[in-house]
Structures are given as structure tokens and as C-alpha cells.
Specification:
Fic-like fold, 9 helices, 0% strand
């Protein structure tokens, strides 16, 4: 069952209910990945992890959940790389990220890069934004050595600041296309501000519990 094919609309109540349920499972799965990575002492971002995160985000909503897209896609006025480029680009991406763990790059800088690069490659049919935000948070939590505390976690805070977040992605895209280097300064500023907001909202006990809010207004890409 693929609900988008049946309803032809992401606004249909059945689609929305499944999207909310997926959102809850998505964050539960993300947390389990963080815990498992810390338990085995492996700060490692793999393509399997990102495919799994995408699967949990869009399972039964869209085709090819957890699989790289087999066709071109359009995202507004942005044209992502061709589908046959996705595999090699993702190979380069994960290799760069995992070398950066060893080089002890600033975690917020690395997480910001992960957030942009996954959105830029746009490797999946749908749910790229959700996957990128989750992967960004995975990097931050693993680098910190724990699931970060706060009332609302960074992926949700980014979604709530969608207009600013998307504008910052466009700045990075444009600079990358013109110079070969993404200008991530605006995106880094947003991530830093929202991460601070999350941590400041943490309970005084500092027990690390968070409320993993689902997107009750409907999930966006």
C-alpha cells in the first residue's frame, strides 16, 4: 500500500495520519541508532543508516522508501543531480563525513554540512528533508556522546523554521554552483541558534529526556 498513489494528495486525512505515525517511529528509530552507535563506540555515518532513516520517514507513503531514487526529481526551481549520479555522490559524501570524525572537525560544522549536502544530493524520492535533519542530529548526538536533552529536538525546530532554513540552503546551493564551495554560514548560524534553544529548554535535572514531537501539522519533505 502506497498512500500517495491511492489518495493523490498529501493533505488526505489517511495520508496525514500515517505521516504522523511515521514521524513518531522515525524519531524513535533515530534515537535507537544514536544509542547503538554509542554502545559500540563507532562514530560512523553510513549509507545504510540514511536509507533506514528515509524508510522510517516515508514507509507506505511514497514509493521507493529507503531506496535511492531511480528517476530525476524537481524541487521548486532547484534541479538536483541526475539519479545516476546519486550513488557515487553518496559514496563521496559518507567518506568525507567519516574522515571528518577522525579529523575531529567541530560537530556543529560537520552536522551543518551533512544537513546541506543531503538536501543538495536529494537522494530519495521523498523525505529528503526529514532524512537530512535526522542525519544532522545523529552526527551531533554521537559527537556529544549522548542523546541531547531538550523539550523539542533540533530536527523539529528546523522544520518549524522552514522558511529561514530553506533560504539558507538556497544560499549554500547557489554559492556551491558558482564557486565549488558552499557558503554554509547562514545555515550554521541557524543550526547553532536552534541547538542552543533546544539545550536551554532541557529540564534542570539534565536527565536527557526529550519529547520527540511528531509533525501534527503534516510532514514536509
Amino acid at each position: 500500500m502506497i498512500l500517495f498513489e491511492l489518495t493523490r494528495s498529501e493533505e488526505h486525512p489517511a495520508y496525514q495520519r500515517m505521516a504522523i505515525a511515521n514521524g513518531n517511529r522515525h524519531y524513535d528509530f533515530l534515537r535507537s541508532l544514536v544509542v547503538a552507535s554509542l554502545d559500540v563506540g563507532r562514530p560512523f555515518l553510513s549509507q545504510h543508516i540514511m536509507k533506514a532513516l528515509n524508510f522510517h520517514a516515508i514507509a507506505c507513503l511514497h514509493t521507493n522508501a529507503g531506496e535511492y531514487r531511480p528517476c530525476p526529481v524537481h524541487v521548486g526551481d532547484y534541479q538536483p543531480p541526475e539519479h545516476y549520479q546519486v550513488g557515487p555522490l553518496m559514496d563521496d559524501f559518507v567518506n568525507f563525513v567519516n574522515r571528518s570524525w577522525d579529523d575531529q572537525v567541530d560537530p556543529v560544522v560537520l552536522a551543518t554540512y551533512v544537513l546541506w549536502r543531503l538536501n543538495y544530493i536529494h537522494p530519495f524520492i521523498n523525505g529528503n528533508g526529514r532524512t537530512a535533519r535526522a542525519a544532522c542530529y545523529f552526527v551531533l548526538c554521537v559527537a556529544a556522546g549522548s542523546w541531547l536533552p531538550g523539550e523539542t529536538i533540533l530536527p523539529e525546530l528546523l522544520r518549524m523554521r522552514r522558511v529561514d532554513y530553506v533560504a539558507a540552503l538556497k544560499v549554500a546551493d547557489s554559492s556551491f554552483e558558482s564557486t565549488g564551495q558552499p557558503d554554509l554560514s547562514r545555515l550554521h548560524e541557524i543550526v547553532s541558534i536552534l541547538l542552543s534553544q533546544q539545550l536551554e529548554s532541557a529540564a534542570p535535572s539534565g536527565d536527557g529526556d526529550v519529547s520527540d514531537e511528531s509533525n501534527e501539522e503534516g510532514l514536509e519533505d
